Amino acid sequence: MRVLVVEDESSLAELIKEGLEDEGYSIDLAYDGEEGFDLAANEPYDVIVLDIMLPKKDGFEIVRDLRSKGVKTPVLMLTAKSTTEDKVLGLNSGADDYLTKPFSFDELLARIRALLRRSFGEVESIVRISDLELNINTHEVKRSGKPIELTSKEYALLEYLVLNKNKLLSRMDIVEHIYDYSYDYDSNVVDVLVARLRRKIDRGFDEKLIHTVRGVGYMVKE
Ligand code: CA
User: Fold this and answer.
1) Cα of 110 to ligand 1 centre, how many Å?
2) Does 136 share its domain with 94?
3) Per the structure, how many domains does the chain have?
4) Alpha carbon of 86 to ligand 1 centroid (Å)
5) Are 96 and 157 in a shared domain?
6) What confidence score (pLDDT) does residue 82 get?
7) Percent of all residues in the chain with a pLDDT value above 70, rounded to a whole number
């Protein structure tokens, strides 16, 4: 999953980026409101973490302008003070949730995961397809009850495929959601990653879950 963090306090922004990358997310950072808005409006993020007080364009304006352009990406707002006014204004502008500074990283992570689950229509933290199960909180993966060890990139790919089950995903869709902005697009990398994941998920099972759609991309289905 790919997350945009718009935060002008660079040390906090870096801390969030490192923590989320450890959890397998791909992160882009923006340090002012204009850059944040441009990225949010043009790149396919799965969640946006948005500070309110920002140079050039504040968080309220950003979320309002995104919603009026039809960008529906879930937004988690960071508020400096826990005043009701800020929260109400944030939610009214189109934010989906808010978090008051200072916050613990675990709470940030829990809220991001909740927004992701909601946006993919999943309410449980365990997502199942056939005999495969994915715990999107702990990243544990099992098939037929047996644990499967994945690297963080393999996990990110599997999570993206499973949350979009029955949907055909192009290599570009996959790259845009599991790599960050600095990544140079190379469709071959996706093919190699899918091949590795397939060996761990499908090898030895009669029912294959990862399907190739020739010339187009990949799909997970029962
Ligand atoms: Ca700020």
Assistant:
1) 22
2) no
3) 2
4) 14
5) no
6) 67
7) 98
CA 31 to ligand 1 center in whole angstroms: 9
Average pLDDT, the chain: 92
Q: Tens of pLDDT along 164-210? A: 999 999 998 998 899 887 777 676 889 999 999 999 999 999 999 99
Query: Does residue 180 share a domain with residue 103?
Result: no
Range of the domain at 100: 2-119
Owner of token pair 């994945």: 150
Residues in the chain: 222
pLDDT digits (tens, 9 = 90+) for 49-98: 999 999 999 999 999 999 999 999 999 999 887 677 777 777 888 899 99
Count of other CB atoms within 10 angstroms of residue 195? 11
Distances (CA, A) of 84 to 48, 52, 81, 108, 190: 21, 14, 9, 19, 45
Separation of 113 CA from ligand 1 center, angstroms? 23
Cα 6 to middle of ligand 1, angstroms: 9
- Out of 84, 119, 154, a domain closes at 119
Q: Does residue 53 contact residue 33 with C-beta atoms inside 8 Å?
A: no
Report d(CA 222, CA 166) in Å as an integer: 8
Q: In what order do the strands lie in the sheet with 217-220?
A: 169-170, 217-220, 210-213
Ligand 1 mean position, distance from CA 28 (Å): 17
Residues, Cβ < 5 Å to ion ligand 1: 8, 51, 53
Of 119, 152, 167, which residue is a domain's last?
Answer: 119
